[in-house]
Design brief:
heterodimer; A: alpha+beta; six-stranded antiparallel beta sheet; six-stranded mixed beta sheet; 20 strands; B: alpha+beta; 9 helices
């Protein structure tokens, strides 16, 4: 892999670029979808490709391709150089440079193990059985579960290599897998859905019974749901919902959005942006994190960063470009969707610190309010510039410190900074959630939010 | 350009795919090339050129789909994919039917984007930037993007079908930010089509003014109301309402799994008689149009709701066979790396006879959602949510002040029945729809539509 990346860098410099960087990746993956006690589909796939950044003076361009023959690489290199010529000059554009003095932590020596080699020992028959067990578990958990929409298992073995004409060289391999199911429950003349999921480095990390039971519980607890009355009240976000918001906060902490004035956190470095109860780190080296890697998308070593601590905004996330623009160093926060996308600033794994109270404790502290177990419309209901949001929600009423009747068809509204300042407590039971980013968070109690229902 | 797959190769691949048995096999080949660029801070950046080629092979056997995909279109790559797809099958081999090539007329493209100089595209973005910023000194930031993509596809299956399509799409988008004291507002607009660069030769700069105009208008916004009230929805991208509320629930895979609120509703009255709606993959040069779907079925105009009565679901081959009906040309896939599933093409509510002004004049207190940022639905429960990007209060029959941060929320069956006026105006807009991890271009359209009562989720209780 690294050979291929080096070849692409050479070809791009040969095509007239002053500097070049190549990101090559290859992954082999499987996916099983089960429904009605049978395997609905079984997919086996390999994916290979390479993406090249080219710099000509202060101009930057990008090209990707899947033809890895010599002719294919030459054509790709020519396209990359051509795109650079189209771009305007930007004084901060330039290839990544490795930090001159590397601490042991930054040399990648403390890089975590990201592979579960046992993944290869599970045949497609084995993983199909796992998907079927997830469905069975959802159906067995509660008589009111009428069906599952589907139960899914997927895994991948991924290899990445990054090389640049400025001396960056990195290569790593990681495995990952996940399982989920959407249960359909029926009762009181209506149909309800509930999602259960799990993730890990290998299939042994997945507990099919737990995934199925979670889906069943989430679907059945919604039977008979009504609308809450519109009001401001305490809100408990369960871990999956909290994770969706934390992912949005991670995006808003990217220096790119901040420098271009398009983040609610712009101008707030060092300021109080949250209650002390909310602490979040970005940790690209967490052995359990699905976005973990020894280096970021530009080959710069990853590390653990305090983002919000003691209520204060400690740092933004920087890649090479935004760091240069701010006159600081990259935090190893270039993230990459694969060879088909250019690197951009992004969080790796966002880790929210856990507190003392379990869910019952949070509910007791809330007293009267709403426990939100699902949100919808995050991509359209949040203004990324201002952080103002209003999103669809469902969950359970909280009365007298305990959960009461199910609630649906309401919205919760606030803005990201006000919400963080209104955090009253973080729960004790954190979990990994893969929606919209890799996040590990406990449930959060928010002092007040606007709930709009009937 | 060479053909994506020679008929002899296709036959060999299909035979290989059926070597271990199976009722149906298909090979889908694709070659794609695209260019995107953006302007931000008045500087051309993020220039990206992409090229990919690959194939997906699927085999259907006993209710299970076996699927494999590979990068590359060499006969060896294709046979490898066929071998992987068939790896789990060990029955007696089946014989594919001889291939018969279908004649397909792709959508007409006058000016191939790849033949237009890159500088012209960069200049177009500079024009968008200048026009948007000229709309007012309060426009503080503007980003605009240009994207072109050409996808050639070929599909061959064991029923003897051999077909293909050549698809070119272009799309531009503008997002403007306006600031006044502490207030920050955004406005966005897009223009796109299954069309060549000629789409942008008229007055493409107009969308920059429209986006900037929205942001400027919203600077005067107050908080959005919270609660149930009559809602008038604007034309064009307002059609995302029907897309989410009804379109997804009509996709036959959801229906057959019992995961749609429209299960058992075929033939029933689901809306007032004033509402008729279509899914139409044949609208010339429209964003969601293709000449064939990604299984080779010609696209068609499907009436989904006729005067309030549900008359058809949307099918791909697999779901159509299960229901014993003909596929409706809705088998779509994001790329050769994905299995086809029933998807919308261009969905719209047909124009009615109400005048938009009159619709609003009849509302004493309500909400005017002129445009949406997007929406989401759970087809199984019918619960939906829409983010409003441009909303206003209606007071005393008149549109008064703009509102910030509103969301509409409700349930499909109730809201669809509650549509009590459909406007005579009509407009189509472009969208990108996500389902089962796949994104496809879709068109949405309608004139102004009024919903008798809907929950507006703002902050003003």
């Amino acid at each position: 892999m690294i050979e291929l990346a080096r070849r692409a860098v050479e070809a791009t410099v040969g095509a007239g670029a002053g500097a070049a960087e190549a990101y090559a990746s290859e992954d082999a993956g499987r996916e099983v979808r089960a429904h009605g006690g049978a395997v609905e589909s079984l997919t086996a796939a390999t994916r290979r490709g390479i993406g090249v950044r080219a710099w000509i003076g202060q101009r930057a361009g990008y090209a990707y391709g899947t033809d890895l023959s010599d002719a294919g690489i030459r054509e790709l290199a020519a396209r990359a150089a051509e795109t650079a010529r189209i771009a305007d000059e930007d004084e901060f554009a330039g290839p990544p440079e490795l930090p001159v003095r590397l601490s042991p932590d930054m040399r990648g020596e403390s890089a975590p193990e990201l592979r579960d080699p046992s993944i290869g020992e599970w045949s497609s028959r084995d993983v199909a059985a796992l998907a079927l067990r997830i469905e069975e578990a959802a159906l067995a958990a509660d008589r009111r579960v009428a069906a599952v929409e589907q139960a899914v298992y997927a895994d991948s073995v991924e290899r990445v290599a990054i090389a640049s004409s400025t001396g960056v060289e990195a290569e790593y391999e990681r495995t990952s897998c996940y399982g989920y199911t959407q249960a359909l429950a029926e009762g009181e003349g209506a149909r309800e859905t509930g999602l259960g999921f799990g993730l890990g480095r290998g299939p042994a990390a997945l507990d099919p019974v737990r995934i199925g039971a979670e889906a069943a519980a989430r679907a059945t607890e919604m039977i008979g749901a009504g609308k809450p009355s519109s009001r401001g009240c305490p809100v408990v976000l369960d871990a999956t919902v909290a994770a969706s918001f934390v992912a949005l906060i991670g995006r808003a902490l990217g220096a790119d959005a901040v420098q271009r004035g398009r983040s609610p956190f712009a101008g707030l470095a060092g300021e109080v942006v949250a209650d002390d109860a909310f602490v979040v780190h970005d940790d690209g080296l967490d052995p359990e994190g699905s976005s973990s890697a020894p280096v970021d998308g530009e080959g710069i070593p990853r590390r653990r960063l305090a983002l919000i601590e003691n209520g204060a905004l400690r740092t933004f996330l920087y890649d090479t470009y935004t760091a240069r623009r701010a006159g600081t160093a990259s935090t190893g926060s270039a993230s990459r969707g694969g060879y088909r996308s250019q690197p951009s600033v992004g969080a790796s794994n966002l880790i929210v610190a856990s507190g003392e109270l379990d869910l019952d404790g949070l509910l007791a502290q809330a007293g009267d309010g709403v426990l939100v177990t699902d949100v919808a419309g995050l991509h359209s209901g949040v203004n990324p510039v201002t952080g103002v949001f209003s999103v669809g929600a469902s969950g359970l009423a909280i009365r007298g410190g305990e959960t009461a009747e199910p609630l649906r068809e309401f919205t919760i509204a606030s803005d990201l900074v006000s919400m963080l300042k209104a955090v009253r407590a973080a729960g004790s039971a954190a979990r990994w959630v893969p929606f919209g980013g890799s996040v590990r968070t406990p449930p959060l109690l928010i002092g007040e939010m606007t709930v709009a229902g009937s | 350009m060479s053909p994506l797959i020679e008929p002899e190769v296709a036959e060999r691949v299909l035979r290989r795919a059926l070597a271990g048995g199976g009722e149906f096999a298909e090979v889908f080949c694709e070659r794609g090339a695209g260019l995107t660029l953006a302007i931000d801070e008045s500087r051309i950046e993020s220039v990206q050129s992409g090229a990919s080629a690959g194939a997906g092979v699927r085999v259907l056997s006993g209710g299970t789909t076996y699927f494999a995909h590979v990068d590359g279109l060499d006969p060896d790559d294709l046979e490898r994919a066929a071998g992987e797809a068939a790896a789990a099958l060990h029955a007696e081999s089946a014989e594919p039917r001889p291939l018969r090539a279908e004649a397909v007329v792709p959508q007409p493209i006058e000016l191939r984007p790849a033949e237009v100089a890159a500088q012209r595209k960069a200049d177009l973005l500079r024009e968008l930037d200048a026009r948007g910023r000229a709309a007012g000194p309060e426009i503080s930031e503007l980003t605009a993007s240009y994207a072109e993509v050409r996808r050639e596809i070929a599909v061959a299956n064991s029923d003897g079908l051999l077909s293909g399509d050549d698809r070119t799409r272009v799309r531009i988008g503008v997002q403007a930010v306006a600031r006044r004291e502490g207030e920050v507002q955004t406005g966005a607009e897009t223009l796109g089509g299954h069309r060549g660069f000629e789409l942008l030769e008229d007055d493409a700069g107009e969308i920059a003014e429209a986006a900037a105009g929205k942001a400027l208008t919203l600077l005067d916004a107050g908080p959005a109301p919270a609660g149930s009230m009559p809602v008038v929805i604007g034309g064009g991208f307002g059609g995302v309402l029907f897309h989410e509320m009804t379109g997804h629930g009509l996709e036959a895979d959801h229906v057959q799994k019992g995961a749609s609120v429209y299960v058992g509703k075929l033939g029933s009255q689901v809306a007032q008689p004033l509402l008729t709606a279509y899914d139409d993959g044949r609208m010339p040069n429209e964003w969601g149009s293709d000449s064939i779907d990604d299984e080779g079925t010609p696209t068609q105009k499907t009436m989904a709701i006729e005067e309030g009565r549900l008359v058809s679901f949307l099918y791909d081959r697999l779901t159509a066979a299960r229901d014993g009906v003909a596929p409706t040309g809705n088998g779509r896939r994001e790329s050769f790396r994905h299995l086809p599933v029933p998807r919308m093409t261009n969905t719209y509510i047909a124009p009615g006879d109400a005048e938009p002004e009159a619709m609003i004049a009849e509302v004493e207190r309500g909400f005017y959602a002129a445009s949406f940022a997007g929406g989401q639905v759970d087809p199984a429960t019918g619960d939906f949510v829409f983010g409003v990007s441009e909303g206003y209060l209606i007071e005393g029959g008149r549109v008064t002040r703009p509102c910030r941060g509103a969301t509409l929320i409700g349930n499909c069956l109730e809201a669809l029945l509650a549509i009590d006026a459909v406007g005579s105006d009509f407009e189509m807009k472009t969208g990108v729809c996500g389902k089962a991890g796949q994104k496809v271009p879709v068109g949405t359209g309608q004139g102004h539509v009024r919903v008798r009562a809907m929950t507006v989720g703002g902050t003003e209780v």
